[in-house]
Every structure is written in structure tokens, then in C-alpha cells.
Amino acid sequence: MSESTRLKSTVYVGGLDSAVTAQTLAEAFVPFGEIVDITLPKADAHNSGEAHRGFGYVEFDLPQDAKEAIDNMDGSEIYGRTIKVAAAKPQKDANEGLGSKTAIWEQEGYLAKHAVDEADRQAAEEARQASNRPQDPMQGLEQLDVAGPNPE
User: Fold this and answer.
1) Which CATH code is given to the segment(s) 3-87?
2) Contact status, residue 66 vs residue 9, Cβ threshold 8 Å
3) In sequence order, which residues have a C-beta less than 8 Å from that of residue 5 and are 6 or more positions away?
4) Contact, 13 vs 57, CB < 8 A?
5) Which residues pair with 56 in a beta bridge?
6) Residues 12/55, Cβ–Cβ less than 8 Å
7) What is the Cα–Cα distance from 105 to 118, expressed in whole angstroms?
8) Would the N or C end of the chain have less CB density within 10 A of its end CB?
9) Distance from C-alpha of 132 to C-alpha of 120, rounded to nearest angstrom
10) pLDDT tens digit string along 71-106?
11) How far apart are CA 147 and CA 124, in angstroms?
12) CA separation for the pair 20, 30 (Å, rounded)
């Protein structure tokens, strides 16, 4: 099964109670089609009081079964908690986007997309230097040497 077909056959199930197990999800979702795999990501070490992180993934054999499960199970209840059921999204690459361990300018293609040519860089530097020069505090006040209303 290709990765895109597999993704279309997988649903995200969120808002799960800590008592929910893979068996519970299997029993809840089996009416919609043959289930290939159920994943409940484990909690971090510092959150060891919970068996899973409050969400899971159910992979069906057919994409139509996943769509049917989304249509029928989104907003339903399991163990007294309303669950969110939606199409699963692809997992982000560890070197991409927020939270990555690589600086954004070191990512492939970033410099090509956001490169600045040397002429623009020089113009920006000249503008920065010009704005740093002290200006004459009397500049622009040439016509204000007469007090009172403007003589016409």
C-alpha cells in the first residue's frame, strides 16, 4: 500500500480518556470496515501517569471506510468524553518548520528562495548609514523666523 493511500485510510481520534485502549478503539471503529492498525502514542516520561497522550490513529483497509468512520464518529462519546475524528495528516519532517533542530537558514532551499543580491544589500547599508548621521536641528525651520501670523 502506498504512503498516500495509507494516509487516506487513516483517521485521527482525539480527546480520548486515559482508560481508552487499542481494544476499545477497535470495538468502536470496526463497524465501519476492516481495521489494519491502531496506534496510541505513548505519553512522555514526565507524564507517566497516563498510558497514552489522549489521541490515536486508526488505519482502515479502504479509504472509504475511513471516510465513513469520520462522518459517523466525529463528535461521538467514548467513556463520557466527546472525541474528535478527522483525516490523519502526514507527519512533519524533524528538520522542517517550528520546533526543528535545524536553523531555518540552514534548511535546503531557504537561501535560494530568500537570497538578496549584492546591490540591494549595499543600498540597504547606505540607507542605514544615512539615517545614523546627526541632522541639523534647525533644518526645515528657515521660514519660521518671524513670530505671529503669516504675513500675506
Assistant:
1) 3.30.70.330
2) yes
3) 63
4) yes
5) 13
6) yes
7) 18
8) C
9) 19
10) 999 999 999 999 999 999 887 665 555 566 777 767
11) 41
12) 15
| Three state DSSP letters for the chain | CCHHHHHHCEEEEECCCCCCCHHHHHHHHHHHCCEEEEECCCCCHHHCCCCCCCEEEEEECCHHHHHHHHHHHCCCEECCEECEEEECCCCCCCCCCCCCCCCHHHCCCHHHHHCCCHHHHHHHHHHHHHHHCCCCCCCCCCCCCCCCCCCC
Type of residue at 70: I
Residue 43: CB atoms within 10 Å: 15
- Cell (9 digits) for 74: 466525529
For residue 34, give the amino acid letter: E
**C-alpha cell recorded at residue 151:** 504675513
pTM above 0.70, yes or no: no
